[in-house]
Design brief:
With 295 residues, the chain is of the alpha/beta class. Helices cover 32% and strands 27% of the residues. It contains 7 helices and 14 strands. Strands 10-9-11-14-12-13 form a 6-stranded mixed β-sheet, with helices on both faces. The chain has a 4-stranded antiparallel β-sheet with strand order 3-6-7-8, with helices on one face. The protein has a two-stranded antiparallel sheet with strand order 1-2.
């Protein structure tokens, strides 16, 4: 302790004097202000003018087809894009702010003249096996991977006709890790996941028919709807069943694994290898997805 005139001043090691505290506070405020400025400049520079040419698309509150509509954007209109998420654009138009599916903005989709609920959906189609993984074999040694891909591509075409955003886990004969398939769907914000496979038995020609498998309880409804839609097929409908398969277990959205016949049944394989069967399955699955997405 030392006296300075009539004042006594204590100096304690580790304590800041009042002027130093004020300096520190000013520095903190300056850094925070700079941070806000940088964020604001980033958002401003990322703004982009986009011209929507679709006849009519719905502006939604959130980046999901189940979100409430803000308004309908009719005709050619220029909007300001301020963000992006899961394939949706966050835009400002005529004083309204909301989200639109990026894949529809330059399409001929007309939301005012159709009840097509698939247009705003993102669906992942998984062709089972591929590359070094042949899958099961027919009695003539035809590989499962060949026909899961054909069926997946057929469904892709049907869904594209409905304006759906389709993501394929594979589009050619390539090896794709099991874990990466649902991971892709989860990362890209898919609404639904469909995996194609073909069943097999230890002894050939001892089983026939198709089955819709689900893992999570929230996928039961999707499996039931698709199973019902596939009733029109000539093969026996074996119904729905619980299946502990990684591709549907790890998916966070409604997901089904469709075993569309027994590949080592000569009767079933006659259908499986048919381009007409692949097309009909794709059409029926699409019809089922239309029904499911209406609810």
């Amino acid at each position: 302790m030392r006296k300075v005139g009539d004042r006594v001043r204590f100096q304690r090691k580790g304590y800041l004097s009042e002027p130093n505290l004020l300096i520190l506070l000013r520095v903190v405020i300056l850094i925070a202000g700079l941070g806000i400025l940088i964020v604001g400049l980033h958002q401003f520079t990322n703004r982009q003018k986009i011209t929507i040419t679709a006849p009519a698309i719905i502006l939604r509150q959130q980046a999901t087809p189940s979100s409430s509509a803000v308004t309908t954007i009719n005709g050619t209109k220029t909007v300001t894009k301020v963000g992006e998420k899961n394939g949706w654009y966050h835009v400002i138009v005529s004083g309204h702010r909301g989200w639109v599916p990026s894949w529809l903005i330059h399409s001929n989709y007309n939301a005012t003249s159709t009840s097509n609920h698939l247009a705003e959906e993102t669906i992942v189609i998984d062709a089972g096996h591929g590359g070094s993984d042949s899958g099961a074999l027919s009695t003539s040694n035809a590989m499962e991977k060949t026909y899961t891909l054909k069926m997946a591509l057929a469904l892709q075409q049907q869904l594209k006709n409905q304006y759906t955003r389709v993501i394929m886990t594979r589009s050619s004969d390539q090896t794709v890790a099991l874990a990466s398939r649902p991971a892709l769907a989860n990362k890209d914000g898919a609404n639904l996941f469909i995996s194609f496979h073909f069943d097999s038995t230890d002894t050939a020609n001892t089983a026939s028919g198709f089955t819709a498998y689900y893992y999570h309880s929230f996928s039961k409804s999707l499996a039931a709807t698709l199973s019902k839609s596939l009733n029109a097929l000539a093969l026996t409908n074996r119904g729905t069943a619980y299946g502990n398969f990684q591709v549907i277990r790890d998916s966070t959205m409604p997901a089904v694994l469709l075993e569309m016949g027994y590949i080592n049944s000569d009767t079933d394989f006659t259908y499986i290898q048919s381009a007409n069967y692949q097309k009909v399955v794709a059409e029926l699955v699409t019809d089922g997805l239309k029904t499911y997405t209406k609810s």
